[in-house]
Amino acid sequence: MTDARQRERAEQFKRLHDRSKLLILPNVWDVVSARAFEELGFPALATSSAGVAAVLGYADGQLISRGEMVEMARRIAAALSIPLTADMESGYEAVAETVREILAAGVVGVNLEDGRPDEKAIVPTSEQVERIREARATADQVGVPLFINARVDVYLAGVGEPRERLPMALERGRAYVAAGADGVFVPGVVDRDTIAELARGIPAPLNVLAGPRSPTPAELAALGVARVSLGSGMHRATLSHAQKLAQSLLAGGGFEFLEGNISHAEVNQLLRARPAR
User: Fold this and answer.
1) What is the domain count for the chain?
2) Considering the entire predicted model, what is its pTM?
3) CATH code at 99?
4) 196-210 pLDDT tens trace
5) Which of 19, 188, 199, 212 could cysteine-pair with 156, CB 3.0–4.6 Å?
6) 114-145: pLDDT as tens digits
């Protein structure tokens, strides 16, 4: 991808967060899932770190290497004509190197979480602020306006008492924006009043994680949310569906479920139709 094309996609991706329409990202886990969702008309896509890790045989929690995560993102970005943002967990040990590699892979956005992958805890705010500053400075040096989505894991990790989490999330979100983040991702929140407070109190586009108890897309947009991610939800839903079909075979069922699916030729066509490089 030329530098000009990547910058254009990065700017396009940033515009999708202007709240004129809720940006829904059905996180993908490999090239064919990405191509299938692109063909449906999504204006941008995101990778699922948990989904990518699972495809390559790792449990979630930054057990997959940075190189393997970046390589999958590179493959996906190369197959798309729309912007791709990558979930890079906590950014690994050297955030600057992670940013350089992900930009070289053709990606235009990155998630950086403040949770510790090996425990139910979060890093000190000052430490995460420095990592975000480092990521911003590196992207500026490369010359691509990378969309840094700073993840606040206060709710997801269950940090502190419930009454303490909203002020803690607001404080962190504001600090991350001041450090150079373009957006703030607060997964684990489903309460409407809390979501509205976060959207009002954080001076950047708010990203939440969809779940079965989440408000509807229309409600999230009305609450001020700019972006909603599905995380590993689509990958797990796909795996669950496949398990149910396989279970029916074990129970003596027939092959009727093979009717009406995407055809072999259609899958091949998805993978043959690549954007011009």
Assistant:
1) 1
2) 0.95
3) 3.20.20.60
4) 999 999 999 999 999
5) 188
6) 987 656 789 999 999 999 999 999 999 999 99
